[in-house]
Amino acid sequence: MAPSSSSLIVFAFIALACALCVQSTSGNIACEDLKEDSCAYAVSSSGKRCVLEKHVRRSGEEKYTCRASDIEAEKLKDWIETDKCIEACGVDRHALGISSDSLLEPQFTHKLCSSACYRSCPNIVDLYFNLAAGEGVYLPKLCEAQRGHGRREMAEIKSSGMVAPGPESDGGKPVSFYIVAPAPPPY
């Protein structure tokens, strides 16, 4: 039996509506439009990382807003982190700001360095790779030390054994710099 013209019109309308829905949800992420439960670890269409902020009104009421930070994600745009990665990496979707201090917590580094996170969640790994680099720590070395459960290695990281020194000048000799490599790609 051949389809009637009215059923073809209905099918075309449904197909067009589905196409518009898919187009509007893929891409064009603005941090300011995200809700509290999807803000942290998201990346906007412009490549800026989203950050959750808490504002307390005079009445004492707390209001959460999402905004674009000044930090750009490398090679990543239009990204809302999955619940699977949030759990695998041990991060909190309701985190207010992100600190490198968490890298000193063994429970956190254990999850971050696990293969479920490190190999499957490039957005979170890239973010913490850059946070670690800002502290002079090379994340793959930190993960290697964490996997080995070596107290000596962790102590070196915490004490500055793995911190890259700043530039030094030696009587007119060229200044030497340490270059931080981008996060290694997941396997």
TrEMBL record:
UniProt keyword annotation of Cytoplasm present: no
Presence of keyword Signal: yes
Keywords in alphabetical order: Signal
Short name of one Pfam family: PAR1
InterPro entries named among the record's database cross-references: PAR1
Signal peptide interval: 1-19
PANTHER family (UniProt xref): PAR1 PROTEIN (PTHR33649:SF2)
Protein name: PAR1 protein
The species this protein was found in: Coffea arabica (Arabian coffee)
